[in-house]
Protein backbone atom coordinates (compact mmCIF):
# COMPACT_ATOMS: atom_id res chain seq x y z
CA UNK A 1 0.00 0.00 0.00
CA UNK A 2 1.25 3.48 -0.80
CA UNK A 3 0.19 6.31 1.48
CA UNK A 4 0.89 9.63 -0.20
CA UNK A 5 0.38 13.15 1.09
CA UNK A 6 0.49 15.82 -1.64
CA UNK A 7 2.90 15.14 -4.51
CA UNK A 8 6.47 15.73 -5.61
CA UNK A 9 5.73 19.14 -7.13
CA UNK A 10 4.12 20.30 -3.88
CA UNK A 11 7.13 18.89 -2.02
CA UNK A 12 9.53 20.89 -4.19
CA UNK A 13 7.49 24.06 -3.72
CA UNK A 14 7.38 23.59 0.04
CA UNK A 15 11.12 22.95 0.16
CA UNK A 16 11.75 26.09 -1.90
CA UNK A 17 9.68 28.17 0.51
CA UNK A 18 11.41 26.65 3.52
CA UNK A 19 14.91 27.28 2.20
CA UNK A 20 14.32 30.93 1.35
CA UNK A 21 16.76 32.75 3.61
CA UNK A 22 14.73 35.96 3.57
CA UNK A 23 11.75 34.19 5.14
CA UNK A 24 13.65 31.83 7.41
CA UNK A 25 16.59 33.31 9.20
CA UNK A 26 16.66 36.22 11.61
CA UNK A 27 19.32 38.75 10.68
CA UNK A 28 21.48 38.59 13.80
CA UNK A 29 24.77 39.78 12.36
CA UNK A 30 24.77 42.86 14.60
CA UNK A 31 23.73 40.82 17.66
CA UNK A 32 26.17 37.92 17.51
CA UNK A 33 28.80 39.49 19.76
CA UNK A 34 27.68 39.32 23.40
CA UNK A 35 24.22 37.93 22.67
CA UNK A 36 23.01 35.93 25.67
CA UNK A 37 20.72 32.90 25.87
CA UNK A 38 19.71 30.31 28.40
CA UNK A 39 20.66 27.37 26.14
CA UNK A 40 22.71 27.29 22.95
CA UNK A 41 22.34 24.30 20.62
CA UNK A 42 25.41 23.82 18.41
CA UNK A 43 24.49 22.02 15.19
CA UNK A 44 21.63 22.67 12.78
CA UNK A 45 21.00 19.13 11.60
CA UNK A 46 17.86 17.11 12.18
CA UNK A 47 18.75 16.01 15.73
CA UNK A 48 19.78 19.49 16.85
CA UNK A 49 16.71 21.10 15.31
CA UNK A 50 14.28 18.50 16.67
CA UNK A 51 15.76 18.93 20.14
CA UNK A 52 15.75 22.72 19.94
CA UNK A 53 12.09 22.55 18.96
CA UNK A 54 11.28 20.22 21.86
CA UNK A 55 13.11 22.41 24.38
CA UNK A 56 11.49 25.69 23.35
CA UNK A 57 8.04 24.09 23.37
CA UNK A 58 8.64 22.79 26.89
CA UNK A 59 10.21 25.99 28.18
CA UNK A 60 8.68 28.97 26.36
CA UNK A 61 9.96 31.38 29.03
CA UNK A 62 13.60 30.50 28.37
CA UNK A 63 15.75 31.73 25.47
CA UNK A 64 17.29 29.31 22.97
CA UNK A 65 19.63 29.70 20.01
CA UNK A 66 20.75 27.25 17.32
CA UNK A 67 24.24 27.83 15.91
CA UNK A 68 25.01 26.30 12.50
CA UNK A 69 28.32 26.61 10.67
CA UNK A 70 26.87 26.37 7.13
CA UNK A 71 24.87 29.01 5.24
CA UNK A 72 21.80 26.76 5.38
CA UNK A 73 20.42 24.20 7.83
CA UNK A 74 20.48 20.42 7.47
CA UNK A 75 22.83 20.27 4.50
CA UNK A 76 25.04 17.35 5.55
CA UNK A 77 23.81 14.01 6.96
CA UNK A 78 20.27 15.37 7.30
CA UNK A 79 20.26 16.32 3.62
CA UNK A 80 22.36 13.46 2.22
CA UNK A 81 20.54 10.34 3.40
CA UNK A 82 18.39 7.66 1.82
CA UNK A 83 15.12 9.32 2.88
CA UNK A 84 13.74 6.13 4.43
CA UNK A 85 11.34 6.09 7.37
CA UNK A 86 12.61 2.97 9.11
CA UNK A 87 10.33 0.67 11.08
CA UNK A 88 12.86 -0.72 13.60
CA UNK A 89 13.52 -4.25 12.36
CA UNK A 90 17.30 -4.51 12.60
CA UNK A 91 18.12 -3.33 16.09
CA UNK A 92 18.85 -5.35 19.23
CA UNK A 93 15.59 -5.89 21.16
CA UNK A 94 15.39 -3.66 24.20
CA UNK A 95 18.16 -1.37 23.00
CA UNK A 96 17.76 2.39 23.04
CA UNK A 97 18.15 2.37 19.26
CA UNK A 98 15.25 -0.08 18.81
CA UNK A 99 12.91 1.69 21.21
CA UNK A 100 13.59 5.13 19.77
CA UNK A 101 13.17 3.98 16.18
CA UNK A 102 9.82 2.29 16.74
CA UNK A 103 8.45 5.23 18.72
CA UNK A 104 10.12 7.72 16.38
CA UNK A 105 8.49 6.23 13.29
CA UNK A 106 5.04 6.56 14.83
CA UNK A 107 5.76 10.14 15.90
CA UNK A 108 7.18 10.95 12.46
CA UNK A 109 4.08 9.78 10.60
CA UNK A 110 1.86 11.77 12.99
CA UNK A 111 4.01 14.88 12.49
CA UNK A 112 4.04 14.53 8.70
CA UNK A 113 0.26 14.28 8.67
CA UNK A 114 -0.15 17.27 10.97
CA UNK A 115 2.20 19.46 8.94
CA UNK A 116 1.07 18.28 5.51
CA UNK A 117 4.58 17.17 4.57
CA UNK A 118 4.63 14.79 1.58
CA UNK A 119 5.56 11.18 2.27
CA UNK A 120 4.89 7.71 0.91
CA UNK A 121 4.36 4.57 2.94
CA UNK A 122 5.70 2.38 0.16
CA UNK A 123 6.93 -0.51 2.29
CA UNK A 124 10.11 -2.56 2.27
CA UNK A 125 11.06 -6.10 1.35
CA UNK A 126 14.16 -7.69 2.88
CA UNK A 127 14.81 -10.41 0.33
CA UNK A 128 16.64 -13.73 0.73
CA UNK A 129 18.13 -14.83 -2.59
CA UNK A 130 20.24 -17.72 -1.19
CA UNK A 131 19.04 -20.59 1.00
CA UNK A 132 21.67 -19.87 3.65
CA UNK A 133 20.06 -16.45 4.12
CA UNK A 134 16.67 -17.89 5.16
CA UNK A 135 17.61 -18.63 8.81
CA UNK A 136 18.93 -15.06 9.16
CA UNK A 137 15.72 -13.74 7.62
CA UNK A 138 13.62 -15.68 10.13
CA UNK A 139 15.80 -14.40 12.96
CA UNK A 140 15.27 -10.86 11.68
CA UNK A 141 11.52 -11.42 11.70
CA UNK A 142 11.69 -12.57 15.34
CA UNK A 143 13.77 -9.52 16.21
CA UNK A 144 11.23 -7.24 14.57
CA UNK A 145 8.44 -8.91 16.51
CA UNK A 146 10.30 -8.36 19.79
CA UNK A 147 10.75 -4.70 18.83
CA UNK A 148 6.98 -4.37 18.25
CA UNK A 149 7.43 -3.40 14.60
CA UNK A 150 4.04 -3.09 12.96
CA UNK A 151 2.55 -5.45 10.39
CA UNK A 152 5.61 -7.64 9.70
CA UNK A 153 5.18 -10.86 7.77
CA UNK A 154 7.25 -13.48 5.97
CA UNK A 155 6.25 -13.93 2.32
CA UNK A 156 7.22 -16.48 -0.33
CA UNK A 157 8.54 -16.09 -3.88
CA UNK A 158 5.06 -15.68 -5.39
CA UNK A 159 4.12 -12.95 -2.93
CA UNK A 160 7.42 -11.19 -3.59
CA UNK A 161 6.47 -10.94 -7.27
CA UNK A 162 3.04 -9.61 -6.30
CA UNK A 163 4.67 -6.82 -4.28
CA UNK A 164 7.61 -6.23 -6.63
CA UNK A 165 6.94 -7.72 -10.09
CA UNK A 166 10.60 -7.53 -11.20
CA UNK A 167 12.17 -8.74 -7.96
CA UNK A 168 13.23 -12.35 -7.51
CA UNK A 169 13.90 -14.10 -4.20
CA UNK A 170 13.17 -17.24 -2.20
CA UNK A 171 11.57 -15.52 0.78
CA UNK A 172 11.24 -11.99 2.06
CA UNK A 173 10.40 -10.07 5.18
CA UNK A 174 7.60 -7.64 4.30
CA UNK A 175 7.51 -4.36 6.24
CA UNK A 176 4.59 -2.28 4.91
CA UNK A 177 5.09 0.34 7.67
CA UNK A 178 8.39 1.49 6.12
CA UNK A 179 8.13 4.72 4.15
CA UNK A 180 10.05 7.52 2.47
CA UNK A 181 10.21 11.27 3.01
CA UNK A 182 12.51 14.22 2.35
CA UNK A 183 14.25 14.45 5.72
CA UNK A 184 15.78 17.83 4.94
CA UNK A 185 12.29 19.23 4.44
CA UNK A 186 11.32 17.73 7.81
CA UNK A 187 14.40 19.33 9.41
CA UNK A 188 13.49 22.74 8.03
CA UNK A 189 9.97 22.35 9.36
CA UNK A 190 11.38 21.64 12.82
CA UNK A 191 13.40 24.87 12.46
CA UNK A 192 10.27 26.79 11.48
CA UNK A 193 8.47 25.45 14.58
CA UNK A 194 11.45 26.48 16.71
CA UNK A 195 11.53 30.02 15.37
CA UNK A 196 7.78 30.48 15.61
CA UNK A 197 8.00 29.47 19.29
CA UNK A 198 10.60 32.19 19.91
CA UNK A 199 13.89 30.44 19.17
CA UNK A 200 16.77 32.10 17.32
CA UNK A 201 18.75 30.55 14.46
CA UNK A 202 22.20 31.77 13.43
CA UNK A 203 23.95 30.33 10.39
CA UNK A 204 27.59 30.71 9.31
CA UNK A 205 28.68 30.41 12.93
CA UNK A 206 31.36 27.72 13.23
CA UNK A 207 31.99 27.07 16.92
CA UNK A 208 35.69 26.58 17.63
CA UNK A 209 35.88 27.43 21.33
CA UNK A 210 33.63 26.79 24.32
CA UNK A 211 34.95 28.34 27.51
CA UNK A 212 34.06 30.07 30.77
CA UNK A 213 34.12 33.84 30.83
CA UNK A 214 35.53 35.82 33.74
CA UNK A 215 33.47 38.96 33.39
CA UNK A 216 30.01 39.93 32.21
CA UNK A 217 29.52 41.68 28.85
CA UNK A 218 30.09 45.41 29.11
CA UNK A 219 26.75 46.27 27.53
CA UNK A 220 24.59 44.18 29.88
CA UNK A 221 23.57 44.11 33.54
CA UNK A 222 23.30 40.33 33.65
CA UNK A 223 26.42 39.81 35.75
CA UNK A 224 27.58 36.21 35.45
CA UNK A 225 24.19 34.77 34.59
CA UNK A 226 25.60 33.65 31.23
CA UNK A 227 29.06 32.26 32.09
CA UNK A 228 29.73 30.21 28.93
CA UNK A 229 31.14 31.81 25.80
CA UNK A 230 30.88 30.06 22.43
CA UNK A 231 33.27 31.66 19.96
CA UNK A 232 33.28 31.20 16.22
CA UNK A 233 36.14 30.89 13.76
CA UNK A 234 35.35 34.50 12.71
CA UNK A 235 35.77 35.86 16.22
CA UNK A 236 32.03 36.16 16.96
CA UNK A 237 30.74 35.28 20.40
CA UNK A 238 27.49 34.04 21.93
CA UNK A 239 27.06 33.69 25.68
CA UNK A 240 24.77 31.26 27.44
CA UNK A 241 24.05 29.38 30.62
CA UNK A 242 24.21 25.91 29.09
CA UNK A 243 25.35 24.27 25.85
CA UNK A 244 23.99 21.28 23.95
CA UNK A 245 26.04 20.05 20.99
CA UNK A 246 24.59 17.94 18.18
CA UNK A 247 27.55 18.15 15.84
CA UNK A 248 27.23 14.98 13.76
CA UNK A 249 30.47 14.60 11.81
CA UNK A 250 32.23 16.99 14.20
CA UNK A 251 30.75 15.79 17.48
CA UNK A 252 34.07 14.45 18.80
CA UNK A 253 35.87 17.73 18.07
CA UNK A 254 33.15 19.76 19.76
CA UNK A 255 33.60 17.55 22.79
CA UNK A 256 37.35 18.14 22.78
CA UNK A 257 37.15 21.94 22.59
CA UNK A 258 34.99 21.96 25.72
CA UNK A 259 37.49 19.81 27.60
CA UNK A 260 35.50 16.58 27.41
CA UNK A 261 36.60 13.15 26.21
CA UNK A 262 37.85 12.77 22.61
CA UNK A 263 36.35 9.28 22.34
CA UNK A 264 34.44 7.70 20.78
CA UNK A 265 36.06 9.09 17.66
CA UNK A 266 34.13 9.96 14.51
CA UNK A 267 35.38 8.32 11.32
CA UNK A 268 33.63 9.42 8.10
CA UNK A 269 32.44 6.75 5.67
CA UNK A 270 31.22 7.85 2.25
CA UNK A 271 28.38 5.98 0.57
CA UNK A 272 28.17 6.31 -3.22
CA UNK A 273 24.83 5.70 -4.91
CA UNK A 274 23.87 4.78 -8.43
CA UNK A 275 20.54 5.96 -9.83
CA UNK A 276 18.14 4.22 -12.18
CA UNK A 277 17.51 5.98 -15.46
CA UNK A 278 13.99 7.47 -15.53
CA UNK A 279 12.76 5.03 -18.17
CA UNK A 280 13.62 2.15 -15.81
CA UNK A 281 11.85 3.43 -12.69
CA UNK A 282 9.10 0.86 -13.26
CA UNK A 283 11.50 -1.84 -12.07
CA UNK A 284 11.17 -0.75 -8.41
CA UNK A 285 8.00 0.06 -6.46
CA UNK A 286 9.20 0.14 -2.85
CA UNK A 287 12.36 -0.37 -0.82
CA UNK A 288 14.21 -3.61 -1.57
CA UNK A 289 16.97 -4.59 0.87
CA UNK A 290 19.30 -7.59 1.19
CA UNK A 291 19.41 -9.82 4.25
CA UNK A 292 22.23 -8.27 6.31
CA UNK A 293 25.36 -10.35 6.79
CA UNK A 294 26.43 -10.21 10.46
CA UNK A 295 30.09 -10.60 9.44
CA UNK A 296 30.11 -7.13 7.93
CA UNK A 297 29.41 -3.74 9.52
CA UNK A 298 26.96 -2.27 6.98
CA UNK A 299 23.62 -3.32 5.49
CA UNK A 300 24.71 -3.78 1.88
CA UNK A 301 23.33 -2.37 -1.36
CA UNK A 302 19.61 -1.74 -1.67
CA UNK A 303 16.95 -0.13 -3.86
CA UNK A 304 15.41 3.07 -2.53
CA UNK A 305 12.64 5.07 -4.25
CA UNK A 306 12.73 8.80 -3.55
CA UNK A 307 10.08 11.45 -3.10
CA UNK A 308 11.09 13.14 -6.36
CA UNK A 309 10.39 9.92 -8.27
CA UNK A 310 14.02 8.85 -8.69
CA UNK A 311 15.39 5.49 -7.51
CA UNK A 312 18.71 5.25 -5.70
CA UNK A 313 20.79 2.07 -5.74
CA UNK A 314 23.44 1.38 -3.10
CA UNK A 315 25.31 2.65 -1.25
CA UNK A 316 28.75 1.19 -0.81
CA UNK A 317 30.76 2.18 2.28
CA UNK A 318 34.32 3.48 1.96
CA UNK A 319 36.52 5.68 4.10
CA UNK A 320 36.01 9.35 3.23
CA UNK A 321 39.16 11.46 3.11
CA UNK A 322 37.19 14.48 4.30
CA UNK A 323 34.45 14.63 6.93
CA UNK A 324 32.13 16.37 4.51
CA UNK A 325 33.67 14.94 1.36
CA UNK A 326 30.95 13.87 -1.03
CA UNK A 327 33.26 13.36 -4.01
CA UNK A 328 35.91 10.68 -4.47
CA UNK A 329 38.72 13.23 -4.72
CA UNK A 330 37.65 15.41 -1.75
CA UNK A 331 40.55 15.55 0.73
CA UNK A 332 41.18 17.30 4.02
CA UNK A 333 44.63 16.55 5.43
CA UNK A 334 43.56 16.89 9.06
CA UNK A 335 40.47 14.72 8.64
CA UNK A 336 42.45 12.05 6.78
CA UNK A 337 45.32 12.05 9.27
CA UNK A 338 42.93 11.87 12.24
CA UNK A 339 41.19 8.86 10.72
CA UNK A 340 44.15 6.76 9.59
CA UNK A 341 46.18 7.42 12.76
CA UNK A 342 43.33 6.27 15.00
CA UNK A 343 43.97 2.83 16.42
CA UNK A 344 40.29 1.96 16.29
CA UNK A 345 40.10 2.46 12.51
CA UNK A 346 43.28 0.46 11.98
CA UNK A 347 41.75 -2.47 13.85
CA UNK A 348 38.45 -2.16 11.98
CA UNK A 349 40.28 -2.25 8.63
CA UNK A 350 42.28 -5.33 9.62
CA UNK A 351 39.11 -7.15 10.70
CA UNK A 352 37.25 -6.27 7.48
CA UNK A 353 39.98 -5.89 4.87
CA UNK A 354 38.38 -8.16 2.24
CA UNK A 355 35.01 -6.44 2.67
CA UNK A 356 36.65 -3.02 2.48
CA UNK A 357 38.53 -3.83 -0.73
CA UNK A 358 35.30 -5.09 -2.27
CA UNK A 359 33.48 -1.89 -1.34
CA UNK A 360 36.20 0.23 -2.95
CA UNK A 361 36.17 -1.93 -6.07
CA UNK A 362 32.39 -1.62 -6.44
CA UNK A 363 32.66 2.11 -5.91
CA UNK A 364 35.02 2.40 -8.88
CA UNK A 365 33.46 -0.13 -11.24
CA UNK A 366 29.72 0.27 -11.81
CA UNK A 367 29.48 -3.19 -13.36
CA UNK A 368 30.53 -4.80 -10.06
CA UNK A 369 27.82 -2.91 -8.18
CA UNK A 370 25.19 -3.82 -10.74
CA UNK A 371 26.19 -7.48 -10.46
CA UNK A 372 25.06 -7.42 -6.82
CA UNK A 373 21.85 -5.59 -7.67
CA UNK A 374 20.99 -8.10 -10.40
CA UNK A 375 20.60 -10.78 -7.73
CA UNK A 376 17.36 -9.05 -6.80
CA UNK A 377 16.23 -7.60 -10.12
CA UNK A 378 17.74 -9.80 -12.87
CA UNK A 379 16.37 -7.58 -15.62
CA UNK A 380 18.66 -4.70 -14.62
CA UNK A 381 21.73 -3.98 -16.77
CA UNK A 382 24.70 -1.63 -16.56
CA UNK A 383 23.12 0.58 -19.22
CA UNK A 384 20.12 1.17 -16.91
CA UNK A 385 22.09 3.10 -14.28
CA UNK A 386 24.08 6.30 -13.81
CA UNK A 387 26.40 7.48 -11.10
CA UNK A 388 24.42 9.30 -8.46
CA UNK A 389 24.89 11.32 -5.27
CA UNK A 390 26.82 10.38 -2.15
CA UNK A 391 26.42 10.78 1.58
CA UNK A 392 28.91 10.72 4.44
CA UNK A 393 28.09 8.80 7.59
CA UNK A 394 29.48 9.94 10.95
CA UNK A 395 30.51 6.55 12.29
CA UNK A 396 31.61 6.48 15.92
CA UNK A 397 34.43 4.01 16.67
CA UNK A 398 36.01 2.94 19.92
CA UNK A 399 39.74 2.28 20.21
CA UNK A 400 39.23 -1.48 19.78
CA UNK A 401 37.79 -1.02 16.31
CA UNK A 402 34.17 -1.63 17.28
CA UNK A 403 31.38 0.36 15.65
CA UNK A 404 29.52 2.24 18.36
CA UNK A 405 26.03 1.15 17.47
CA UNK A 406 23.93 3.09 19.96
CA UNK A 407 23.50 6.65 21.12
CA UNK A 408 26.27 8.22 23.20
CA UNK A 409 25.73 11.25 25.42
CA UNK A 410 28.58 12.87 27.22
CA UNK A 411 29.15 15.72 29.60
CA UNK A 412 32.20 16.63 31.56
CA UNK A 413 33.52 17.87 34.85
CA UNK A 414 34.66 21.28 35.94
CA UNK A 415 33.14 24.66 35.25
CA UNK A 416 32.70 24.14 31.50
CA UNK A 417 32.04 20.41 31.31
CA UNK A 418 29.28 20.58 33.92
CA UNK A 419 27.38 23.04 31.71
CA UNK A 420 27.75 21.13 28.44
CA UNK A 421 25.92 18.07 27.10
CA UNK A 422 27.28 16.44 23.95
CA UNK A 423 25.30 14.14 21.67
CA UNK A 424 28.34 12.10 20.65
CA UNK A 425 26.71 9.48 18.46
CA UNK A 426 23.26 9.53 16.89
CA UNK A 427 23.53 6.73 14.31
CA UNK A 428 21.08 5.71 11.63
CA UNK A 429 18.09 5.76 11.97
CA UNK A 430 18.53 9.14 13.68
CA UNK A 431 16.24 10.88 11.19
CA UNK A 432 13.39 8.42 11.73
CA UNK A 433 13.94 8.62 15.49
CA UNK A 434 14.47 12.38 15.62
CA UNK A 435 11.32 13.34 17.52
CA UNK A 436 11.81 10.51 20.02
CA UNK A 437 15.51 11.36 20.37
CA UNK A 438 14.55 14.98 20.97
CA UNK A 439 12.32 13.97 23.89
CA UNK A 440 15.12 11.93 25.41
CA UNK A 441 17.76 14.64 24.98
CA UNK A 442 15.38 17.28 26.37
CA UNK A 443 14.80 15.06 29.42
CA UNK A 444 18.57 14.78 29.87
CA UNK A 445 19.07 18.54 29.47
CA UNK A 446 16.38 19.21 32.07
CA UNK A 447 17.90 16.71 34.47
CA UNK A 448 21.51 17.84 34.11
CA UNK A 449 20.88 21.55 34.07
CA UNK A 450 17.78 21.73 36.31
CA UNK A 451 15.81 23.76 33.77
UniProtKB/TrEMBL annotation:
Sorted keywords for this record are: FAD, Flavoprotein, Oxidoreductase
From the UniProt record, which GO molecular function terms apply? (S)-2-hydroxyglutarate dehydrogenase activity
Domain of life (superkingdom): Eukaryota
What does it catalyze? (S)-2-hydroxyglutarate + A = 2-oxoglutarate + AH2
Domain FAD dependent oxidoreductase positions: 38-443
Return the EC number.
1.1.99.2
Cofactors: FAD
Q: Which protein family is named in the record?
A: Belongs to the L2HGDH family.
**Name of the protein in question:** L-2-hydroxyglutarate dehydrogenase, mitochondrial
Amino acid sequence: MIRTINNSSNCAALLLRCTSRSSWFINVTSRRNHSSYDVAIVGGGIVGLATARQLVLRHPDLSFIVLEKEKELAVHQSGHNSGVIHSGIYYTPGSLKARLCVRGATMAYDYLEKKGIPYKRCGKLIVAVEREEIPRLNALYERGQKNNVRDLSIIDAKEIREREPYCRGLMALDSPYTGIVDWRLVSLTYAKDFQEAGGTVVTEFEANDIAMVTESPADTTDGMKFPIAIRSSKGEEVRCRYVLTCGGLYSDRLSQISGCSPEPRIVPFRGDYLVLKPEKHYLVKGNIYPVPDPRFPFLGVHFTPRMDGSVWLGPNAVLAFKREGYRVYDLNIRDFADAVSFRGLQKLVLKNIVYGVGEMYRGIFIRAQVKLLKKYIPEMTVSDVLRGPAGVRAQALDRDGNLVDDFVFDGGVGDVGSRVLHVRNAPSPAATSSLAIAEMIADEVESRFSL
